[in-house]
Amino acid sequence: MDRKWELDEANTVTAHFGFFGKKVISVNGKEVYSARKYTRNREIDFSLPDGRPAVLSLIPEFIGRPTVHLKVAGALAMETPKKPITCGSCGAVAKPYDKFCGKCGKPMPSAEDRELRGNISSATGAIKALAVLYVLGGLLMFAVARGHTDTALSKLEGMPDEATYPTQIEGRSYKVGELRKQIEWEPWGVLIVNLILATIMVALALWARRAPLPAVLIAAATYLVLIVANAIGDPRTLAQGWVIKLIVIAFLVKGIKAALALRTARA
Amino acid sequence: MRSGTQFCPACGQNLLAPAAAVPAPTPAPAKELAGGRRFVQLWEELKRLAWLFGLLLGTSFIFGIVWRGIRSPWLEVMETAVMAAIVLIAVSQRYPRLKFLFEVHSSSLREAAILVGVAVLFVVLASAYFELLAHLGVPIAKATGTLQRAGWPLWAVLLLVSVAPGVFEELAFRGVIQSSLERMLNARDAWLIQAALFSVLHLSPLIFPSHFLMGLCFGYMRKRSRSIYPGMLLHACWNALVVVGEF
């Protein structure tokens, strides 16, 4: 993993994070730090050619890669992104260290502001991914449930609707007609529920553009509740796809924190 | 100067205009966005609300799991009692800030008419939603199924399915959650968030839309009247209508 910070026209810091804790930091192409130390939380101090002190911090995250911050003389530096930075007002291309747009003169977002917006964007991405998963999952489960429906209905063949089914289900007796209706509804129920959830997630992802905090908060609560509701139905589902569940929750929590920070700053 | 630029990217000075005529914009003071005192206060309050929501969800989960093995109406009583205890503790921790919800405010005839109008609109829309589900053949589990099978009298069922949720759900969502979020965010966002949390905590996606509508109505009544009682009354009445309909 390589990271780059263009601090001004004369200074560029690059960092290379290799396997097994290898870290190499260069300033204007000249190596200033190289070591192989495996520690999760680490701060590396070095100086720029003009004497300004710089600190590269690796902040461990709950899940995934650590956050990397470069602070120069105490101020967070803007990392050079892969796509060029553009002004939010006029769309002109700007340098990462520009404090104002050269074309329209409007202030450019700070490094922290940009990082928080990135976290919100990741959370919105997770919400969109959930919407896609619910649509695909719904279609898949519909197909599987249709297969089970045919098998279950064949067992009730020849029984009149008014008769009581001989075996109790989850401690309850059912009329055959009632049972038939429930079995026929099952695949459609799964499909409709998943489509409702996908619609909720799409609506929240769209709303997150205007009001990220409530949208991401509601998405996180809905996702947690669905995990719990599924686990009540079948506790084994709690362990299914737990890595994806943790990643989604981590993105959503970071998104909530970032949206709250931006909201506090605007207030 | 970079080609094509009119303003200095470092200070914002208009480079093509005389310096005296167009003063350079003052850059906004650098704020530590995620470390400020206000942010920390709000984040801590949000965590406390998450705890409340998590405890209520956890209670539903534990009783839901136990329910798979023991289908007793007493389990519903115990679940209601645990949830009531959680809500009462949350209310008692914030009571000075929630006191206004328990005071009876004088209201004009117009205000009272608006609240009644909202209540009527809610009953019509919620009934229409459940009629639609029934028309589509969606099987909806009876709220009083277990209690009826156990032969519990109507008054006991009303107490458990109508009065208890009417009081404790309103205290949790329109009391603690809506009021705390109003102070943290704004009235509109707080109203929408509490309605969404209220609907999802019922754990059934098929009733998310109807319960979101309920949350919006009860929340609006609480916002409009600055009192928890109108929402409590409507909530308990709606649940009582459901109970009487099922009996």
Can you describe this structure?
The complex is a heterodimer of chains A (267) and B (247). Chain A is of the alpha+beta class and 267 residues long. Chain A has 4 helices and 10 strands. In chain A, helix 3 (212-233) runs antiparallel to helix 4. Chain B starts with 36 loop residues before the first helix and ends with a helix. Chain B has 9 helices and no strands. At the A-B interface, helix 1, helix 2, helix 3 and helix 4 of A face helix 1 and helix 7 of B.
H-E order of chain A: EEEEEEEEEEHHHH
Distance between the termini of chain A: 37 Å
Principal-axes geometry of chain A comes out as elongated
Shape label of chain B: elongated
Secondary structure tally: strands of chain B: 0
What percent of residues of chain B are in strands? under 5%
Key words describing this protein structure:
heterodimer, A: 267 residues, alpha+beta, 4 helices, elongated, B: 247 residues, mainly alpha, 9 helices
Can you give me a brief rundown of this structure?
The complex is a heterodimer of chains A (267) and B (247). Chain A has 267 residues and is of the alpha+beta class.
Topology readout:
The complex is a heterodimer of chains A (267) and B (247).
Chain A: E1 2-6, E2 12-17, E3 22-27, E4 30-36, E5 42-47, E6 53-59, E7 67-72, E8 75-76, E9 85-86, E10 93-94, H1 111-155, H2 176-210, H3 212-233, H4 242-266
Antiparallel strand pairs in A: 1-2, 2-3, 3-4, 5-6, 6-7, 7-8, 9-10
Chain B: H1 37-69, H2 73-93, H3 95-98, H4 109-135, H5 145-149, H6 154-184, H7 187-200, H8 208-225, H9 229-246
